[in-house]
């Protein structure tokens, strides 16, 4: 399933319950194929749309939860997997049918802490029994809407309920570092242009940091590491905050005056999207790694691997050098299913996650956290390895005067 950093809304139910019709209705165009033939939708289908009051979202149409046969079971498995990546679920029911398929979905929504509501569809064709509606409300304690795809008022009610139930942290954009700066402050961004830098443009975390500086009415100054030292010496400007790429932490640490807060783009994302306190606790386990330990590296996007790839090349090399141990490394890219035996790993390292949502990062890491496996983030791990961990996290842990426990 492709990834986008927008709220994800999944629509679920049995075959021919009208899931695809509702996707098309809400999107205002024919995104999903609609047919009277059961099982028309196979793999999850995604569509970007705008919901006034909530902004851009991704709607996900899924295969019927009552699919049959060997192929059908694979489709159901993909439908269930998609719950890991959504922020809100819509369960569509019809024909006064509510049984094991629906209960299985609801159990998954509850287990994964996904808010949901129930849409009783095709009410113009097959009016639901009042006892059926009351039974659903009693069994699920969920909000229930009766609807017809042809009724504009029903569409408005669906959109209104989406806006009501969609978690605020899924659509409300929080500042990366707005609590650290004020109007007119200078934010210095030190950016290397290396083999991993896309030609002609900046990587997403760098763009996000520039935009965040502007949104907070700051002055953003962008330099490469070779020019940063000369700029600071010649300009006499003292930045309120300096941000750099994790790969050049040591250089930036030497360049930026010690009384200027310094952190990394990936560390910003760790606080912005990830379980930051869990990262804080997990990062020091790097020093406890032993010969033969397995380290799982989680990439959130698929990309062409370069000879200096940060996750597949640099971090394994730096970890091995820092610990002096013979470690084993595995990489899982995208949002692929992880091993069911996560206890085999001594450490999990998650990338910044610039391309995915907060919900997707938490869902990705939750199985490891539940198993007690230490987790950290690219930037925090690199800062720890390079000996500037305390400085890199200091802007965000000011309440901790003594960081020796880290």
Structural domains: how many: 3
Q: What's the average pLDDT? A: 86
Helical content (DSSP H or I, runs of 4+):
25-40%
Query: Would you identify the CATH H-level superfamily of the largest domain?
Result: P-loop containing nucleotide triphosphate hydrolases
Question: How many strands appear in the DSSP assignment?
Answer: 14
Q: How many whole angstroms does the radius of gyration measure? A: 24 Å
Q: How large is the count of helical segments? A: 15
Main-sheet strand order equals 2-3-1-4-5-6
Low-confidence stretches: 32-41, 399-406
What is the ordering of alpha helices and beta strands? EHEEHEHEHEHHEHEHEHEHHEHEEHEHH
- CATH domain class name of the largest domain: Alpha Beta
Sketch the major β-sheet.
Answer: 6 strands, mixed
Give the percentage of residues in beta strands.
Answer: 15-25%
In CATH, the architecture of the largest domain is 3-Layer(aba) Sandwich
Gap between N and C termini, in Å?
37 Å
Shape: globular
Helices and strands: which structural class? alpha/beta
CATH T-level topology of the largest domain: Rossmann fold
């Amino acid at each position: 399933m492709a990834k986008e950093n927008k709220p994800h809304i999944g629509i679920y139910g049995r075959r021919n319950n009208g899931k695809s019709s509702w996707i098309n209705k809400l999107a205002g165009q024919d995104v999903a194929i609609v047919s009277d033939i059961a099982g028309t939708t196979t793999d999850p289908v995604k569509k970007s749309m705008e919901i006034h009051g909530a902004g851009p979202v991704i709607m996900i149409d899924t295969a019927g939860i009552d699919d049959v046969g060997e192929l059908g079971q694979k489709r159901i498995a993909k439908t269930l997997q998609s719950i890991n990546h959504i922020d809100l679920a819509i369960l569509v029911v019809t024909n006064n049918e509510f049984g094991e398929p629906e209960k299985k979905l609801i159990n998954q929504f509850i287990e994964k802490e996904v808010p949901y509501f129930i849409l009783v569809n095709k009410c113009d064709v097959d009016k639901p029994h009042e006892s059926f509606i009351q039974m659903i409300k009693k069994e699920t304690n969920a909000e229930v809407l009766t609807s017809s795809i042809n009724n504009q008022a029903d569409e408005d009610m669906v959109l209104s309920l989406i806006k009501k139930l969609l978690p605020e942290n899924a659509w409300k954009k929080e500042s990366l570092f707005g609590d650290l700066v004020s109007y007119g402050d200078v934010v210095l961004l030190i950016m290397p242009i290396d083999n991993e830098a896309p030609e002609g443009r900046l990587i997403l975390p760098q763009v996000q940091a520039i935009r965040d500086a502007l949104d907070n009415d700051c002055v953003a100054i962008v330099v490469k590491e070779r020019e940063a030292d000369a700029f600071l010496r010649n300009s006499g400007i003292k930045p309120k905050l300096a941000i750099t790429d994790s790969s050049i932490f040591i250089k930036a640490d030497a360049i930026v005056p010690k009384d200027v807060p310094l952190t990394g783009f990936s560390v910003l994302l760790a606080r912005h999207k990830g379980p930051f306190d869990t990262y804080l606790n997990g990062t020091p386990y790097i020093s406890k790694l032993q010969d033969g330990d397995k380290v799982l590296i989680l990439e959130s996007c698929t990309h062409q691997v370069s000879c200096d790839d940060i996750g597949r090349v640099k971090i394994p090399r730096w970890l091995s050098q820092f610990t002096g141990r013979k470690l084993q490394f595995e990489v899982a890219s995208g949002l692929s299913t992880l091993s069911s035996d996560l206890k085999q790993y001594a450490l999990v390292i998650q990338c910044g996650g610039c391309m995915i949502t907060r919900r997707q990062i938490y869902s990705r890491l939750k199985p490891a956290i539940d198993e007690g496996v230490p987790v950290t983030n690219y930037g925090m791990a690199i800062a720890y390895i390079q000996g500037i961990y305390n400085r890199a996290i200091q802007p965000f842990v000011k309440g901790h005067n003594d960081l020796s426990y880290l």
